[in-house]
Amino acid sequence: MLLADDEHLIRGALAALLALEDDLSVVGEAASGAEAVAMARARVPDVAVLDLQMPGLDGVKAAQEIGRLLPECRTMIVTSHGRPGHLKRALAAGARGFVPKTASAQQLAEIIRTVHAGTRYVDPDLAADAIAAGDSPLTSREAEVLELAADGAPVAEIAERASLTPGTVRNYLSSAAAKLGAENRHTAARMARERGWL
């Protein structure tokens, strides 16, 4: 299997614990999503265990890319940010597992075996939260513009980064805030992030 997590200590500890399992072997470790994709291409693992939050290419995008390049490699996401929108994005990207980092090494080993065997595994609490939260009301363009606004960027900068006019950016931000019942774009971005829609 391939392990990808940008936190070296967590990745190393996980690799050491999983190496204790007789039937599991770690063939590669990566510190970013892009590195995970390159490592998967070079090592061709049966399972790629990817952290959700990594710099650059996140775990969901890495899972999608690995699935495209290596259809036989099963991917799963491990996260400390188990928000409903993240789960839905992961499943849509082809991930076969979605597990909180609160799982024990023994549980994770069993889940890796389950995913390797072709069965999907989603943490029951995360699945229940995702069902209760419903789908994002935002269009993909509204979500994109809201994500660019989340760090406080001015409208002109967002417009340039999104290749839109400032007026169009204001319209998307206004629409997103209205759909979320937020008083401004900053609150809307925070609400959307909390629900995993960004």
Structural overview:
With 198 residues, this protein is an alpha/beta fold. The protein has two domains: 2-133, 3-Layer(aba) Sandwich (Rossmann fold); 140-194, Winged helix-like DNA-binding domain superfamily/Winged helix DNA-binding domain (Arc Repressor Mutant, subunit A), CATH 1.10.10.10. Helix content is 55%, strand content 12%. The protein contains ten helices and six strands; from the N terminus they run E-H-E-H-E-H-E-H-E-H-E-H-H-H-H-H. It has helices at residues 8-19, 33-43, 59-69, 84-92, 105-116, 124-133, 140-149, 155-162, 166-180, 185-194; strands at residues 2-4, 28-30, 47-51, 74-79, 97-100, 121-122. It has a six-stranded parallel sheet, with helices on both faces. It is elongated, with a radius of gyration of 18 Å. The model has no long low-confidence stretch (mean pLDDT 91).
Provide key terms for this protein.
198 residues, Rossmann fold, 12% strand, 55% helix, Arc Repressor Mutant, subunit A
